[in-house]
Amino acid sequence: MNVKIKRQRSPFSEPYWETFAYTGSPDASVASVLDDLNYRDDITDIDGNPVPRISWECSCLQGMCGGCAMVINHKPALACETFLRDLGDELILEPLSKFMVISDLVVDRGVIQNNLLLTDSYIGQYKPSSPKEYEHQYAAAKCLKCGLCLEVCPNYTQGKSFFGAAFANDCYLVATRSGSFDTSIQKEYAEHFAKGCSKSLSCVDVCPMHIPTLASIAKMNRKA
Known about the structure:
Blueprint: E1 2-7, E2 16-21, H1 30-38, E3 69-72, E4 75-78, E5 90-94, E6 100-103, E7 106-108, H2 110-118, H3 134-140, H4 148-152, H5 165-175, H6 186-194, H7 202-206, H8 213-223
Helix pairs in contact: 5-6, 5-8
């Protein structure tokens, strides 16, 4: 299989494409392919030219950290949960386009946390919640902050006031921290999510944790 990777050596350099040859198992994950390419004694492109090792991120390699989020064959996904057997004859890897590229497939997703800081969207002193909220709180809290929902969202643009699905789920968690809905977060939710969401729900389709974001939206809108 040919592996085509969009590369960029620094945030301020021009991106370019390089193609590599992979001859391993078709049951390998995309993460395993990147490891295979990088761990060779000498990494070369498909024409045998020496090239720098490929920059990419990972941590758990079990679909639980979100570190290996990237665009795989034109679809945002986690590299550790995407397998060659499901992809066809060519593997095309690109960094997430909604975030600043650090190097190759590594991007800066700090904007997700910065938006929470900007709106003070953090749970303070813990207080018991209503038991009827437990199941959905557990689901919403699974968010990896991987950025896949923002990558696929037609309304999200970095630096703009719409903060996307990850923010909506966090607003729900903050709003339900005291057993009844806390109205202090409603203004931030309305400003940075509700008025900008067109309900395409592509965020639900791409979420690796299968978070029912539509339920978070419905609960917030109903209380508002």
